[in-house]
Amino acid sequence: MREPEDLFSSVHYADVRRPVGEAFNLPPWCYTSPRFFQREIERLFAKVWNFAGRAERISKPGDYFTTDIATVPLLIARGADGKPRAFANTCRHRGCTVAKGEGNTRAFVCPYHSWTYSSSGDLIAAPTEMGESAGFNMKDYGLTQVRLESWGGFMFVNMDPTAPGLIEYLGNLPQLLKDYDCENMTLGRRLEFDVNCNWKFYAENLKDPLHVTSVHRDSISKFAPVKKYWREVQKTNGNMISTFMGYPASAMLFGDDAGFPMIKTLDKKKAGTTAPLIFPNLYIACTIDGAWYIHVNPVAADRIRLEQGALFPRESLATPGRDEILKRYFRRLDMTQAEDNEICTLQHKGLNSPLSRPGRYSTKEALVHQTVNWILDRVLD
Ligand code: FES
Ligand SMILES: [Fe+2]
Description:
This protein has helices at residues 14-17, 29-32, 34-45, 166-170, 173-176, 199-206, 212-215, 220-223, 314-317, 322-351, 366-379, and strands at residues 50-54, 63-69, 72-78, 84-88, 102-104, 107-109, 116-118, 123-125, 145-151, 154-158, 185-195, 231-233, 240-245, 273-278, 282-287, 290-300, 303-313. Helix content is 24%, strand content 27%. Strands 1-10-9-4-3-2-5 form a seven-stranded antiparallel beta sheet, with no helix packed on it. It has a seven-stranded antiparallel beta sheet with strand order 11-17-16-15-14-13-12. The chain has a three-stranded antiparallel beta sheet with strand order 6-7-8, with no helix packed on it. The chain has eleven helices and 17 strands. By secondary structure, it is of the alpha+beta class. The two termini are 21 Å apart. Helix 6 packs antiparallel against helix 11 (366-379). The structure holds FE2/S2 (inorganic) cluster (FES) and fe (ii) ion. Residues 205, 211, 215-216, 336, 340 line the site of fe (ii) ion. Fe (ii) ion binds next to helix 10.
């Protein structure tokens, strides 16, 4: 199916806008067109709260890491004053990236001509003979700051100075996850994957209950079959959707594998897994002994950089013999991650065909339908 000239006119999407039982999938070009992708970057990712990383990655003053968030190079750093900040990773002299990788530093020295910035982003040296540059004042050329706000140890950035704050964006997410105490959790492991698919395929997959029986047939479906344990779509406001799964054990372990103790603040009788997708692309699954998250970072129309983090209460990670215990969690996470990465790659390959046509949804895929409509609300004219 070829993309139309007036790509963002709502006439092309009327079939997606109908109630889920009558709706069609997004037209295939939404997943393959560089023009559509560029529009998502400008109208969606440039305006929403994007996950940037866990706060414990920069626990000490001077700690930093770099990351490209929805194609924009950023530098996330904790200043000497202890405050976390986000900056454009773009030198104010002639534009080079000023930092790479991660680490701890007192200053960022641009590799091109050595303009130097403090860990709070101020320009502290400009050794390029600026004396005759009219009106040049170092204090006007600090790194461009980007808004950074945190909840539960998750740091988010927003490139739109006029957007409402993070807490407003998240709606009742803090209440839904309150008992899991994400603030007290810390990373047991963090991985990144490059996957060749459009970011929406992956985001949709994270709230697609039907694929579990087939894609995860040999892994999670064996002990937590979708039909056996009730799942409920939770009431949400804010920019997210969420489900609760009544499987009473850890959804981060296989069957009877022994793990860490239950989160202290959880009520045993109500324990299960709460799994929100914070629009557009951060999935968090809080289970009875920890949590994992998946951030689907868009790189191009046909490529994502995926971050998976495994989180545990601090006291659990301080247990002697923790590495042996962690192996069991990672075995479970590695298996399902590989299964989802593969299925999303296959979906992209199949849909990226001149012969593909929009398909139909099951009414059990209401959350997928809701997700793509949330995206259209922001992207269309
Ligand atoms: S571009 Fe950074 S110092 Fe010149
Ligand atoms: Fe999956």
